[in-house]
Amino acid sequence: MRVKEGNKEKDILTAAISIFANDGYHNAKISKIADEAKVATGSVYLYFQNKEDILQKIFEDLWSRLYTELKSHLSNKNLSPAEQIDAMIDLVFDVFTENPDLALVFVNEQNHLQRAEAIRFQNFYEKFLDLGETAIIVGIGKNNFSDNFDIKVFRIFILGAIRSLLHTWANNPKSLALNKIRQSVKFLIKNGIQK
Amino acid sequence: MRVKEGNKEKDILTAAISIFANDGYHNAKISKIADEAKVATGSVYLYFQNKEDILQKIFEDLWSRLYTELKSHLSNKNLSPAEQIDAMIDLVFDVFTENPDLALVFVNEQNHLQRAEAIRFQNFYEKFLDLGETAIIVGIGKNNFSDNFDIKVFRIFILGAIRSLLHTWANNPKSLALNKIRQSVKFLIKNGIQK
Amino acid sequence: MRVKEGNKEKDILTAAISIFANDGYHNAKISKIADEAKVATGSVYLYFQNKEDILQKIFEDLWSRLYTELKSHLSNKNLSPAEQIDAMIDLVFDVFTENPDLALVFVNEQNHLQRAEAIRFQNFYEKFLDLGETAIIVGIGKNNFSDNFDIKVFRIFILGAIRSLLHTWANNPKSLALNKIRQSVKFLIKNGIQK
Amino acid sequence: MRVKEGNKEKDILTAAISIFANDGYHNAKISKIADEAKVATGSVYLYFQNKEDILQKIFEDLWSRLYTELKSHLSNKNLSPAEQIDAMIDLVFDVFTENPDLALVFVNEQNHLQRAEAIRFQNFYEKFLDLGETAIIVGIGKNNFSDNFDIKVFRIFILGAIRSLLHTWANNPKSLALNKIRQSVKFLIKNGIQK
DNA sequence: CATGAATGAGTATTCATTCAT
DNA sequence: AATGAATGAATACTCATTCAT
Question: In this predicted model, which residue has the larger pLDDT, B194 or A142?
Fold first, then answer.
């Protein structure tokens, strides 16, 4: 019997991440993605509604994974608020370190996507940030963290900072050692919010 | 002969900032920019070489202004390193507060531009960041600031954080009060780097 | 998959000859050629790289055909030099008589093309003329033809004369009877070169 | 008093011949012609109705000059028909030798022009050819020339042959010595028409 | 499911011509 | 007459999407 070989949807997504990272979303050609995925141009439309749908799926997968992994990581252990913050930062760095192209797509195209009609990843994105927010609130309650800053601002603050660093790193991995970035970020964040 | 009336170049730039902010660079049409500037389509090409040239000029003007104003601000007074950091943050917030469209273009398109061939704003951009770097180094020398973080990382860290916040604010000014953002940023930054 | 039906490349070439003949190369619109070929505008670019590529292909086909047919015509028979000259003239007149539009494109656009970068038809064009040159040289050797003229000059002389006549005829077939042109040309050429 | 210096109309025509010769009529830009003529773009339209009007004027001047000079040349002397043919050929070669750019415009653009609405040079062109035709008819009458060819055909035949040779020469003057061309043409023509 | 040839809407850019000065 | 800034119509070419096989 003929076994379904490979996973074309996955192949297309992987190819798209690579092409989007290198050419940017707007300059990326569907035919090039199809070539890279070793699939016919028309086949892309069997798995995705249109070009933007591919990008949406990439972000959906990304935030779903980040949320799920963070949740499972936090739930098992009994971590202090500061340790939870560390865990979040580590997770984000780990995910993007193993896939720099994904980091580039993330930093370059998320803004673009946020003006799109349906933001399907919004759900996981918010839940991911909510986990961090909870850690902060607990930390403030325990009098470990200052209350001199707005938590909604903080969410965006930290994510923007990390995104920008990942962008610089992904574009030129040699310009900044990733472990130095990670260490500095942890210090700046935790020192920044401490009482 | 027909003599230049008004300042068409300025009109086109202003229109372009508005259109780029609302439609995004790639979806922005030259004809729409020309309409908004009350100028014929072809006239755009009297003042700019092509579409990208307009975007380059916007960023060039922006970073040139930020650098020049920061420099003059710092040179006159005798500010402590922490006050200098405050001044930088205030300046960025002030510029974008008075022109939210510019903020949107800044956050959405700077990445796009950095992959372009000639990055004309690079010069002023680097000089602006160098001023901040100097403040940090002096602060560390005076034992006011920690040396637990990498300065190159910090440059990107803070700019990315602010950019992300401005993006959220410019997209929906009501979601976050700007003064709350500004105050929180100042706290997180200064608390983050302090010894 | 959707499979190539008919011969779209041929249809486009035929349409292009007609449109180029009537409107001139520079005024010819790709969309009009596509319409005439009953093909979508974009399809033209599946078969040709750009507008000039179409013209190049027309000339390539033309000279390739002229050379091939002349060669096979000369090789079989045992013709005298004068008869070979006749054969060349007849061939050129026959080809253009059956396709006056092609004659018009030939006379109007060959100069234009000769300033273009890549002249793909050059090869067959030269080989065609070389066959004629050989006939002349043999005729001179046999003391049938005069040596009072330069052969390189003659090549251009005769082709230019014929081109000009075809141009007049193709523009207005009624102004000159083609058989009268053909007869006169043969006389003038052969009388002109004879000893 | 301010004396009109130079002759702008003449300057523009001279510039146009140069630009048309080098870039071809369709690629020639009015602004470039104006630059070359050291005149403002708009000034071109003080002397010519539009771009094509410039080309028309070039040909009008050319054929007017050819006709006038030929006429004065023939009228004074008492030349045999064969000498008259020589005189025509010499005149054409002389005019284009002294201005190769004009030769290029002549050979490249005359066809283009002949499809235009108003062919203002037609008058002188016909009269020039009529002078030659008369010489032929006289020569036939004197039994010097053959009557095995059509005179209308011959007109076009000889002009086309010369045009083609001038084209080759003007594009690459070193490829063919002009005196060799001239000598060969005279031989081929006179030998071709003789009894 | 898969293919890739075919489609045709969409747009940056050019440049002959105009016109206010 | 002269200027050259301003105009805006015009078009080759691209590429996301469709669809006949």
Answer: A142
Is C146 an 8 Å CB contact of chain D? yes
Which chains sit next to A, with 3 or more Cβ pairs under 8 A?
A: B
Mutation for A interface: B85, B156, B168, B194, most A CBs within 10 A? B156
CA C51, C53, C59, C62 dihedral sign is negative
In angstroms, the CA A103 to CA A93 distance is 9
Interface check A165 vs B, CB under 8 A:
yes
Q: Taking the C-alpha atoms of D123, D124, D126 and D129 in order, what is their torsion angle to the nearest 10 degrees?
A: 180
Nucleotides of chain F in contact with protein CB (under 7 A) are 1-21
Distance B45 CA to E7 C1' (A): 32
CB contact under 8 A, C111 and D167: yes
A153, A180, A183: residue with CB nearest B181: A153
Torsions phi, psi of B49, nearest 5? -70, -40
Amino acid at A161: A
Contact B149, B194 (CB under 8 A): no
Buried b / exposed e along C14-28 (16+ C-beta atoms within 10 A): bbbbbbbbeebbeeb
Q: Report how far residue B55's alpha carbon sits from residue D69's, in angstroms, rounded to the nearest whole number.
A: 61
Task: Give the C-alpha separation, D67 to D63, whole Å.
Answer: 6
- Calpha distance B33→B28 (Å, rounded): 8
Report residue A128 CA to chain centroid gap: 10
Q: Is B27 helix (H, G, I), strand (E, B) or coil?
A: coil
> Is residue C114's beta carbon less than 7 angstroms from any atom in nucleic acid strand F?
no
Q: What percent of chain B has pLDDT over 90?
A: 46
- Residues with Cβ within 8 Å of C149's Cβ and at least 6 positions away in sequence, in order, are C193, D183, D184, D187, D188
Token pair of C149, please? Answer: 């003229």
Report residue D190's pLDDT band, with 50, 70 and 90 as the boundaries. Answer: confident
pTM: 0.90
C30 or D144: which leads in pLDDT: C30
Give me the residues of chain A with pLDDT under 50, please. Answer: 1-4
**Å from A4 to nearest chain B CA?**
39
Mean of the per-residue pLDDT values of chain D: 88
- Which structure tokens are listed for B57? 């000029």
D145 phi and psi angles, rounded to 5 deg: -105, 150
Measure A105 CA to F15 C1' (Å). Answer: 21
Say which residue, B149 or D33, is predicted with more confidence.
Answer: D33
Residue D125 token pair: 């062109």
DSSP-assigned states of every residue in A20-86: HHHH-TTT--HHHHHHHTTS-HHHHHHH-SSHHHHHHHHHHHHHHHHHHHHHHHHHHS---HHHHHH
Q: Within a 10 A sphere around the Cβ of C187, how many other Cβ atoms? A: 18
Among D112, D146, D165, whose Cβ lies nearest the Cβ of C160?
D165
Q: Which chains touch B (3 or more CB pairs under 8 A)?
A: A
Nucleotide nearest to B2 (CA to C1'): E20
| Two structure tokens written together for D49 | 């109705």
- For residue C121, how far is the Cα from the chain centroid? 10
Instruction: Provide the percentage of residues in chain C whose pLDDT is more than 90.
Output: 51
Q: How far apart are CA D156 and CA C99, in angstroms?
A: 21
Rounded-to-integer distance, Cα B108 and Cα B111, Å:
7
Please state, in angstroms and rounded to a whole number, the distance separating the CA atoms of residues B128 and B135. Answer: 12
* D158 interaction partners in chain C (CB closer than 8 Å): 161
Instruction: With cut-offs at 50, 70 and 90, classify the pLDDT of residue D2.
Output: very low
Fill in the amino acid letter for D63.
Answer: W
pLDDT digits (tens, 9 = 90+) for B117-135: 667 888 898 899 999 889 8
